[in-house]
Amino acid sequence: MKIERPKADQMTPQERKKAIEKGDAVDRVPVVPFMGELKCYLSGISIRDFWHDPKKIADAEIVAFNRYGYDRIVIGPNTRGITEALGGSFVYPENGLPYADVPYLQNYNRLSDMEPAEAGKNPRIQMFFQVADLLGEEAMEMVPIEASIGGPFTIASNLRGVERLLRDCRKYPEEVQRLLRLITDTQRSCIDEAASRGLGIAMADPVANPALIGPKMYEKFIFPYTKELTDYALKKTGKKVSLHMCGSTYSIWKYICQYELNEISLDNIIDMNRAVEELGNYVPIAGNVDPVEVVMNGTKEEITSAVWNCIEIGKRSKKGYTLATGCDIPELARPEQVDYFMEAVRNYR
Fold first, then answer.
1. How far is CA 243 from CA 55, 202, 233, 275, 309, in A?
2. How many separate domains does the chain show?
3. Terminus of the chain with fewer CB atoms < 10 Å: N or C?
4. Which residues contact 107 (CB under 8 A, 6 or more apart)?
5. What is the rounded CA–CA span in Å between residue 148 and residue 81?
6. Which residue range(s) make up the domain with 95?
């Protein structure tokens, strides 16, 4: 399957990216709707195959890009792939989204026998990098491609269970730090593998939401590892990280400002005016159209209004702005809803 230049745009995403870096004029605001498993329904590929068959994953990415022409392709291994590489498991139903199986770490005794996964050798992680090989130079000349490495704390919650991990942060903090160190070393290995292919890095750490753990716990258990990974990714790939954070993140913005970020992608519950004023001087901002109430369930007019409103606010960000959805668009959304979203971006003046 061949990747094609977006017919609705004057520029390819790669041309647009280079023009922005040089300070030249571009044809429209950069945009990344988070498609998630909607790509499966769009391409007719099962969700299980989307997580296990490199050829079908690549085909799904090409089908979605060729239709919408957005400004970035993001492939795995994601939190699921890295969790599985470290011994955890997920259930992949015939219909519906994958979900975590019984936690791998029933106690921390097992941690003594675990080692970081080597991305260049681990078959589960290598499967996702085969997708980049299948997309090849042709795709990378057209659109930037990033490998998502998830977030250390969310991967830890997959291996241990969310409730137990949160409890362990208070009862067994040293064991949690050991687990996070092992995970972070695995993610560093994934960055090495991505760098060898010219890929950028994306991260998402939903369980690190301060609404769950609080800013003090964030400072202790998440900030050091995320800072390490964003610094390392820039050093190895020459590209800054695209980071998505779910939920209300106001209380950790002082930490986010210290990361080496291509963008901070914000949940749709975040006040974009406040984000522009408090974050926009430090890091580029992406966001934050509601993926459910607006993109999935809204009318064409409502989608257009929300998109234009976000752009009006976001373009004031001094470090730059990318239009995005506040989280993944649900997999059962009608594909034409995303057409309306992209049309609104292209019609904005």
1. 27, 6, 12, 15, 22
2. 1
3. C
4. none
5. 10
6. 13-347
Q: Please list, in sequence order, all residues whose beta carbon lies within 8 angstroms of the beta carbon of residue 224, skipping any fewer than 6 positions away.
A: none
What's the CA gap between 239 and 300, in Å, rounded? 35
Strands (E), the chain: 31-32, 73-75, 90-91, 99-100, 145-148, 200-204, 241-245, 261-266, 285-289, 321-325
Tens-binned pLDDT, residue by residue, of the chain (349 aa) = 789 878 889 999 999 999 998 999 999 999 999 999 999 999 999 999 999 999 999 999 999 999 999 999 999 999 999 999 999 999 998 778 899 999 999 999 999 999 999 999 999 999 999 999 999 888 989 999 999 999 999 999 999 999 999 999 999 999 999 999 999 999 999 999 999 999 999 999 999 999 889 999 999 999 999 999 999 999 999 999 999 999 999 999 999 999 999 999 999 999 999 999 999 999 999 999 999 999 999 999 999 999 999 999 999 999 999 999 999 999 999 999 999 999 999 999 8
4 in a structural domain: no
2 lies in a domain?
A: no
Nearest-angstrom CA–CA distance, 160 and 108: 9
CATH number at residue 80: 3.20.20.210
Q: Evaluate whether residue 146 is within a structural domain.
A: yes
> Amino acid identity of 47?
I
User: What is d(CA 46, CA 189) in angstroms, rounded to the nearest whole number?
Assistant: 29
